[in-house]
Amino acid sequence: MNTRPKKPLLGITIAIICGTIMLISTVHLLTTPLRSRWAKQFSARGDNFLNQKKYLSAIVEYKKADLLLPGNATKQKITLARSAGKDVFLMENFYRQNNNIVQQEIFNQVRSVPDTSYDMVMLSRTLIEQNEPQLAVEAAETATEMDKDYRDAWLYLGISNLAVAKQTELAGNAYQIYLNNGKNALEHAKALDPSYTATSDLLKQL
Q1: Is 186 within the bounds of a domain?
Q2: 4-16 as b/e, with b when 16 or more CB fall inside 10 Å?
Q3: Secondary structure element (H or E) that encloses residue 47, with its range
Q4: Phi, psi at residue 86, to the nearest 5°?
Q5: DSSP H helix total and E strand total for the chain
Q6: Is the same domain home to 41 and 79?
Q7: How many domains are there within the chain?
Q8: pTM of the model as a whole
Q9: What is the pLDDT of residues 124-139, one digit of tens each?
Q10: What does each C-alpha distance from 201 to 92, 129, 185 come to in angstroms?
């Protein structure tokens, strides 16, 4: 029976492990500039998608960037893309940092005090046409608060919620929330005016 110690083999194993670790560390260090450049490209693409409110696509790009070069700034953008689907006003700081004056002005317009609930419904309609359904929801909600018995306010609250569910890439359960809110608003509009066929037609489509 061979009882000789295996110290040489153990030493070789340790040397191989140490060498591998050193090689990985060296490769990691040498590729940092390249990974940094790629991460910035992915992050920029994420910003572009976020500007378009394509939240899921933005999350994918930000995750690529974070995988290459982890950082708190990228993680915060991932959190923003996940949350803004439910609350579009969370995007205000992002637009401010990116000097997006147009979006900031639209936010201010939605937050302004309208003369009548009709004006706010018309704003909601315009925002839907401008592919801003999340902000259209906010405008329609203001109209329902101004006049809770105004059929068209509830109608456009329903239409704008359904537009968000249809047109916007949403993360998590936001899609179902908008879908449910849209249906509830349309049912409220129908209860106020059962004879209005437009509301009934939209509910049938659901």
Answers
A1: yes
A2: eeeeeeeeeeeee
A3: helix 32-51
A4: -95, -25
A5: 11, 0
A6: yes
A7: 2
A8: 0.78
A9: 999 999 999 999 999 9
A10: 35, 20, 14
